[in-house]
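Rotation project, supervised by the postdoc (A.L.). Task for the rotation student: set up a whole-complex structure prediction and record inputs and outputs verbatim in this book. Inputs entered:
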Amino acid sequence: MGSGASPEAGAEGVAAQRRDPRRSAVLWAAILIVLGLALAVGSGALRTGGDKAPSVYQRTLQLAGEYRCPVCQGESVAASSAPEAVEIKSLLRSWLQQGRSEAEIRSYLVARYGPSILEEPPASGLSIVVWALPCLAVGLGAAALGFGFRRWRRAGAFVEGPTGLPGPPDVLEPPTAPAARAVPGPAAVPHVRARRRQQVVLFTGVALMVVGVGLWALDRLSAPRVPGGTITGGLTGIQAELQQASALAATDPVAALAVYDEVLTGDPAQPVALTAEGWIYAQAGFAGKAMGLLDKAERADPSYGPAHFYRALVLLDYDRQPGAAVTELKWYLSRGPDPSLSSVARKALGRAESEAG
Amino acid sequence: MRPTGRPRRTVLWVVVGTAVVVAALIAVVASAQPSSEVEGKSPLLGGPAPAISGPGLGGGHYSLAQFRGRWVLVNFMATWCEDCQQEMPQLMEFAKQHARAGDATVLTVADDPSDVGQLRRYLAAEGAGWPAVDDPVATVSYGIQGLPSSFLVAPDGTVFAYLIGEVRASELDSWLQQGAAKGFGAA
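Outputs recorded:
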């Protein structure tokens, strides 16, 4: 500000700045954008692979992600390879093929296991708190922010009031003039208190919004429960994209399939992607589809060990062909298997030999 | 400097609050039921038992319906379940006690399709003469949430009890007596 400017002109400038509708519009727009992004991320709307109509396999896995594995600790049916989870996936697929609605399937499973089978239990009893808390926090936060902004705008109007008294300093913009930093006199004390109250209200509002959105995002992120660890994570020597999909396979098989599909679109004979997809389908109970993919992986690269390993597991556990599994496992173990898979392979071989014998 | 009255009161409240929470936790843990046979909660209780049907592990074909008129202990089992193996003597005793009267039987259901072959050999080695069946759907229709799990099905086909953990022959008999007293004894 130039030295010739009068105090009245400065006050008018500040008031005009506060009245500027563009500025408040930008602020509100920024708040809405942040909230919108948080909601989009929380709801999973930004996930990739949502454009194509899902196949019955993908629908099965998607639906399986909505149920908890009844015999596991914190795993969804989709992510688990426990016998019960595999059976549920197999039933889900046949029910979907028969045209049963998701509501029918849900009521059947709840009638068998109780509401605890649902990844997102209905809002009743204590669980209503889980649903209500984020909404309550966001609601209170929005109310506090609205209240704070209204006071802020009123404070702006106060500056241009007829009394000509100085208004409270801007809560967002610290005063630049050295005089404003001086210790306030007795007349300025109410304004300092008002400013503090505004700051507290705004801070509380923002904190409540953050807590509410955070709780909600936590709930969304924890819906596909983290598994205790499956052998799908044992694949080695794969590129970053495949590693990402491999990590996803344990928690979100549908998303992992989307990534593998992308890889296979570029290279239909990519053995790692074929093997991983095959194993995901096997765990979902689609032994036929799994075997087709694993056969293709073996043909694409006969030296790729995991294809033989997972094919053997499918032969043993899903196709009930222990003799063929013995051959595959012996081949795999004779070629320096991955250390993380070798103990599983040895146990499987023992079981296969016992079954075949 | 000694703390003033208000902070001391706050500290007191925090200590009392923490003590109450800890005491509540201890009470919950202490009152937990033991890990052996426990009466479980199942939405199936009091309703018709879901169908069980499939190839017998020792040959032939079995269904739950063919045992109508008898008490049936539907016992889900896998050889990798150590508790299942530990309860085997109790199942043997229960089956032996009721074999002559023919009023009750055990029906083993293979819990894990990949374990069927081993279960067949295990049951044969143990001398378990009761029917055993391979019906993978039963694990879902009975809402199995862990092993061992057993359902006591009344002669009229009603699910009378759901037992989680190892069963004991004497306790099974007391369940049967309770069932008879409630009018579940006849088909």
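Student's summary: Chain A touches chain B through 23 residues (CB under 8 Å).
Supervisor addendum: Residues 189-222 of chain A form the longest helix (34 residues).
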